[in-house]
Amino acid sequence: MGDRFGLPDLGVGVGLRTVHFGHVLSKAPEVDFFEAITENFLDTGGRPRHVLDRVAERYPVVLHGVSMSIGGTDPLDLGYLRKVKALAARVRAPWVSDHLCFTGVSGRNTHDLLPLPYNEETLRHVVRRAKRVSEVLEQPLVLENPSSYAEFRSSTMSEAAFFARLLKDADCGMLLDVNNVYVSSVNHGFDPVAYLDALPADRVVQYHLAGHTDKGTFLLDSHSARVKEEVWGLYAHAIARTGPRATLLEWDQDIPAFATVHAEAKKALKHRPPLARGSAADASRRAAHA
Amino acid sequence: MRELPRLERWMQAVIVHPGSVEEAACARSATRHLKVSEARRAILPSKTMQPLERLAVYQGMYPLRMRDALVADYPGLAAFLGHRRFFEFVLAYVRVFPSRSYTFARLGDHVPEFLRKTRRFPPAPFLRELARLERAINEVFDLDEEDEGPASPPRHVSADWESRRFAVAPTLRLLAFRYAAGPALDALKAGKRPGTRPRPTWVALHRRRYAVSRLDLTREEFRLLGALSTGRPLGAALRGAARKGGKPLSPRAVTRAFRTFTSEGLLRER
Asked: By CB neighbour count within 10 A (0-12 exposed, 13-18 middle, 19+ buried), where does B124 fall?
């Protein structure tokens, strides 16, 4: 079962991080794909861009942004979006993703993924902006569910219900971060399985996995540890609904050796089939990259 | 659309406030968007946390993110000030110069300017020069210009040497300092305390194979390289370097300087 956009299942990938640049270039590890943080490569002609170009020659690369502020009430930054589009073309990214959140307002960027109230007003606003972004990028925008630590009283629907309507009304894809679902479910007290079941399976384009930290009164999406068993369980449930999708491990704090990160990512293969070389999925992946 | 902009402005005002979350919710910057009574009801409690405690999660992470970004761009400044003072510096800095870009790479653009205006972080004149060097290193790191390959040394001295012109590396940046910013940065990276007395120094920065290199220059070398980078012929550049109070470069010094400039890839034949 593929996604409705016909995007390829890229297999199991790893987030491209500075500490691993040397290893990735010199050892060329057998990784299905990489994900690059968009903003880290937009305004540099130096080593980061050079490394990304070399990586994109060898592997499929998807772009994952943190500053689009799709829920923000400042005007969309069209200059930024055009740069994202150019970078996506440069690395032949099959899709570009960002988060359902706002990152700042009044010209300021907090560089955080701040939560939105889930109601009709926000839905209309985000749908309008997501459509505009897709127009500029000339491809459907893919949005990730963020982890969150606060909920607005003015929300009139669950995050999953909001996402389901947003994805349909704006014709977007979803990057389903299973760890974020789990973190938010504990922080807000909802059923994570019901959340997954409420999402339209054919709009899920990619999965994220990561570790989190128990801070006592809440869970923090720290990306600093191995994926917890509960999250693997949710991933297994989700992938059974959607079929295999590109799956990526994020590790951003206390980053271990590349081999450790990659081995953690490959645990996903317990729950989804590997990309068989020469299979239809692999051919699709390679065609998207060609 | 009425409620969403108000909620976003309020939430941001609380998150970026340097005081406690209670103080933040009561601050004018927040109450102009949401009264305190409204604020307490805007966020739902969880089983384990009150509404403002939940906002405090975001508020607590904001300065840490700013600190991490500025440490990455100003490791020398951070090492000189130490953990606690640097964190105070970050809080003071982002109040005046908050991030207005989609990238963290622009967050530290105003650090030298901030150090020129504040007296809270002595010795400010020294730190400003250190920050100016670190900012220049960051700029050279990100430049769009392509690195040149290995430089071909200029031809041996010939009869037309006075009229010869040279091209400089596209990533070359020349900086003059009133303090020994370069040696100070070296000392700080080695975990040592640098001298902070005024001492004029001159530096060439450039990027080679995607790594930034620093070359400490004499004043005369600095002027010579500066003149050559503007396209002046060698003879005029040498005479210019000797003027403005500089000492004339001896033939041996010129030879040594050229050898260094070419081996570093700074100069090439036009």
From this structure: middle
